[in-house]
Structure formats: C-alpha cells, structure tokens
Amino acid sequence: MTGALLADIGGTNARFALAASDPSAPALLPDSVQVYAVADFPSLADAARHYLDKVGAAPSHGVFAVAGRVDGDEARITNHPWVISAERTRIALGLTRIDLVNDFAAQAMAVSLLGTGDVVPIGGVRWTGWGNSDGWNDSGDRTYAIIGPGTGLGVGALLRRDGRFYPLQTEGGHVSFAPNNPEEIDVLKRLSGEFGRVSNERLISGSGLVNLHRALSQIAGEDPGPLQPQDITAMAREGDVRCLRAIDVFCAVFGAAAGDLVLTLGAWDGVFLPGGLVPKLMPWLAHSGFRQRFEHKGRFSPTMARVPTLAVTHPQPGLLGAAALAAQCALKAAA
C-alpha cells in the first residue's frame, strides 16, 4: 500500500506521484508520475481524483507542494486562479491528512536527496555530492540557496542544523529587480511603464523572458509581436540576434539574483537551480554572463568565487522533495 499522494502544483502543470510507505527510506515511485495541465481541471481536488482513479491507488495522506504562499489551511496559486483548502481537499479525496507546503520548500528538501548525476555545475566550482567529507556525512551545519525560474520565480533555502533538514518557504521571487548596467536600466524603465513595480519574477521566468525580449525590441525600435518563451528559445537556436540577446540578459540577471540570495542567506555552501526553464536554457547558461554576475559582488567577490552553482537536471525535483517531506511527516507522526 502506498503511503502518500504527492503533488507539485505550478502555474502551468500539476504533477502527481506516489511515495513508498516506508518512512525510513523516502522514495518517489518514478513509475507513478503523471503530469496534467492545470487549465484542464477546475480544482486541485478534481485533478488529484482523476490521477488516483487512473493509477488505482488509495494513499493514506498527501503532501502537496504549491506555487504560492501557504497561509494556514489555504494556498493561492500565484500564476493560476486555483485557491486550495487543505481540509476541503482532504475530505474530497478521503485522506487522513494533507500537508500544504510552498513548492520551493519541496524543491529545497529535494536537495538532500540529489546525487552528482542530478546536477550540472555552472562555472568552475566543483561539487562532489553528499557521500564525502564535504557532504552530509560530516557533522557541520549547512546552508543552501534554492532559486529557479519556471512559470514564476521560486526562491527558498535548505538548512541543516544538528543533523536535521529545515526547508525555508519564501516568496523571494517577488523582491524588486535591481538593474546593474545602462541596458538593464532601460529595460526597467520599459517594464515599469507596463507593470509599475518590477520584481525579479518579471524578468526571471517564462513570461519574464518574453518581457525581456519585448523590452529589448522596443529599445531597438522594433515590434516583436506576440511570442511565447518557447518561440524565443527556438529562434535563438536559429541564430536570431534579438532572441539571443534576451537570453543573455536573462542569464545575467538570473546570476545576479542568485548571488544576491547567497549574500542574503549566507548560503556559502552552494546554490541549486531547479525550475522548468533551466534545462531549456542549458545550451546558453554555462556560456552566458550568469557566473560572472553571480560572483560580481564587490568586496565579497572572492568569497562568491568559491560558491558552487548547480543546475538541477533531475526530472521531478518537486515530487522528490515532497516524498522527503512525506517521510519526515510520517516519522513525526510515529514518534
């Protein structure tokens, strides 16, 4: 019997899976993963019921990671109209309990289960995984930053204190964008005219890539017309100069924001970069200004040069982290 229903709910996709029932070995059952468009269902409960009926499972509890702020029993998806009540969803699905967490709490917990094959270093700082003197086998405290662009921009952290893991749930993607050069100041002026206040998410996300491309086109006196993020990456692969520039600026701003997060959290042990856009940008990310802007922090530049930045390539880190949280909850309930 499976122990937990797992969900990773973003602004575009709802991902579901099952976790093994043994809390001592948190495990995502990879064959159980299904992905649906959130637009196809009126509510999370409807999507989850469709999934459970399809796989024929009857789990006892659920861990749902959602792309929005969790306020008590309720969560509102930032980039989609779903409003989720844990209690109403629990009753609709016949579960004994549901734990609602921010999606980047799950992304953070996934870090504790990632191996070297699940990440690609961006820049020259190596990472050798957890099975060594620099990893989980030592007795030291650790602080890791988590930042990743998808439909929105997720931000979190993972702390290890006294051998236990603590994910931080934040809405750090909505901090104000800080331009660093004349071109970015021009971009900010354009986006300020459109949105008023401009957060990092307005640039570092799927819609942010479109915003960047549109602003750069307008600065050049061009009208790009309506585009989707995949249009920009496809045109960049074909050598379109404006699309390539939009990706270059995106990566540079992403690096700057990741570096700011390290300084804010004291996350000297590393930064993990999940998110649906990261794998799509891998052809450009390693050769962009990401790492230069990440390290370019004035008097702290030498310190930043020693901090690894790791693109997450695991196919379902949100569900992996939800499985870790489910095991953690089960251990607490059994204590």
What do you see in this structure?
The protein is of the alpha/beta class. The protein has two domains: 125 residues, Nucleotidyltransferase, domain 5 (2-Layer Sandwich); 198 residues, Hexokinase, domain 1 (3-Layer(aba) Sandwich). The longest helix has 25 residues. About 2% of the residues have low confidence. It is found in: Cytoplasm. It catalyses: D-glucose + ATP = D-glucose 6-phosphate + ADP + H(+). Belongs to the bacterial glucokinase family. One of its GO terms (cellular component) is cytosol.
Looking at CATH, which topology of the largest domain would you report?
Answer: Hexokinase, domain 1
Question: Which structural class should the secondary elements be placed in?
Answer: alpha/beta
Number of domains: 2
Fraction of residues in β-strands: 15-25%
Mean pLDDT: 90
Q: Based on DSSP secondary structure assignment, what is the total number of beta strands?
A: 14
- How are the strands ordered across the major sheet? 9-14-13-10-11-12
Q: How widely separated are the two ends?
A: 21 Å
Number of helices: 11
Binding site for ATP: 7-12
Keywords: ATP-binding, Cytoplasm, Glycolysis, Kinase, Nucleotide-binding, Transferase
Subcellular location: Cytoplasm
Protein name: Glucokinase
SSE topology sketch:
Layout: E1 4-9, E2 13-19, E3 34-37, H1 44-55, E4 61-66, E5 70-71, E6 74-76, E7 83-85, H2 86-93, E8 97-102, H3 103-111, E9 119-121, E10 142-149, E11 153-161, E12 164-169, H4 182-195, H5 206-219, H6 229-237, H7 241-265, E13 271-273, H8 277-285, H9 290-295, H10 301-304, E14 309-312, H11 317-334
Parallel strand pairs: 1-4, 4-8, 10-13, 13-14
Antiparallel strand pairs: 1-2, 2-3, 5-6, 6-7, 9-14, 10-11, 11-12
Catalytic activity: D-glucose + ATP = D-glucose 6-phosphate + ADP + H(+)
Keywords: ATP-binding, Cytoplasm, Glycolysis, Kinase, Nucleotide-binding, Transferase
Subcellular location: Cytoplasm
